[in-house]
Amino acid sequence: MTVEDQTLTCLDFVIGGPNFTPPPLDSLVSTVINELNEYFLGQRQNFTFSFKATGSSFQEVVWQDLVTIAYGETITYNQIATRIGRPKATRAVGRAVNQNPLSIVIPCHRVIGTSGHLTGYRGGLDKKAYLLDLEKYYKAQ
């Protein structure tokens, strides 16, 4: 987790490593932790804290589109490419989705292959399947 100027800028599944320094536990970090806990308990579908993903202009357009994918729904890389007005940029969309610095918050796990199968997920396909199953379960409640 990385916080800059009271804005979440990075959230990933990878924790630790030789240079890992946890962020100070301030009100934003506490809010992020609480809202993620609520998400995993099926009590939250959207996040209220400030977040910003910084990348190329293309990446940022893709990430902004990802935020519009409804909880418990999925979309294909090709559909995203079409929605952002770049229908031939499916592979570039895939690369942008893979570089998403805010896992779960920017719901890249909701993007699937055209065949309907789960494809690439930086956190691992097991985590992608878990998140989709979690959302499907709570959405049905």
Short description:
The chain has 141 residues and is mainly α. It has 5 helices and 4 strands.
Question: What's the SSE blueprint?
Answer:
Layout: E1 2-4, E2 7-10, H1 27-40, H2 57-66, E3 75-76, H3 77-83, H4 90-98, E4 111-112, H5 125-140
Parallel strand pairs: 3-4
Antiparallel strand pairs: 1-2
Helix pairs in contact: 2-4, 3-4
Molecular structure report:
Strands 1-2 form a two-stranded antiparallel sheet. The protein has a two-stranded parallel ribbon with strand order 3-4. It is built from five helices and four strands, in the order E-E-H-H-E-H-H-E-H. The longest helix is centred in the last third of the chain and has 16 residues, at 125-140. The mean pLDDT is 92. 40% of the residues lie in helices and 8% in strands. The protein is globular and about 45 Å long. It has two domains: 2-40, no CATH class; 57-140, Winged helix-like DNA-binding domain superfamily/Winged helix DNA-binding domain (Arc Repressor Mutant, subunit A). A hairpin with a 2-residue loop joins strand 1 and strand 2. The chain is mainly alpha-helical and 141 residues long.
